Recover the amino acids of this structure.
């Protein structure tokens, strides 16, 4: 149950953040806004680490495979692409397309067992569910 609540909260926060970042970008620039987002995220994470965790930062040097450390760089591109998509499509359409892309890529990752994820069997009901979601986007767009 908590997983569902947290996922819903994550989606809501992503939508609000996208709108905020888009508006800040309009008043500054894409790269200033994105850098500020990443800087404030760093500060929040460091604060949370100081209060709750205190695991050695050197443990990051033991992460394998190394490409897994690209999450932060990918996060910068996520910020940029969310801002650009929300600016050109509006928050609702952009969020729907972003979620469909997330769902499609996540399903391919599961099917192929990529990046250390346990391989899952193909299921038509998941493909049908995604097709229904895409149909919903088409209906929403009209």
């Amino acid at each position: 149950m908590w997983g569902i609540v947290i996922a819903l909260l994550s989606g809501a926060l992503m939508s609000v953040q996208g709108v905020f970042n888009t508006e800040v970008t309009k008043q500054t620039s894409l790269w200033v806004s994105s850098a500020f987002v990443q800087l404030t995220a760093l500060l929040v994470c460091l604060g949370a680490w100081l209060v709750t965790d205190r695991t050695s930062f050197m443990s990051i040097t033991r992460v394998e495979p190394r490409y897994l450390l690209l999450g932060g760089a990918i996060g910068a591109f996520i910020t940029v692409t969310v801002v650009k998509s929300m600016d050109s499509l509006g928050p609702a359409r952009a969020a729907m397309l972003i979620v469909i892309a997330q769902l499609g890529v996540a399903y391919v990752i599961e099917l192929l067992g990529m990046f250390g994820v346990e391989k899952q069997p193909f299921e038509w009901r998941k493909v049908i569910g995604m097709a229904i979601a895409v149909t919903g986007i088409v209906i929403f767009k009209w």
In short: Residues 46 and 52 are 10 Å apart (CA to CA). The two ends are 34 Å apart (CA to CA). Residues 2-27 form the longest helix (26 residues). The chain has five helices and no strands.
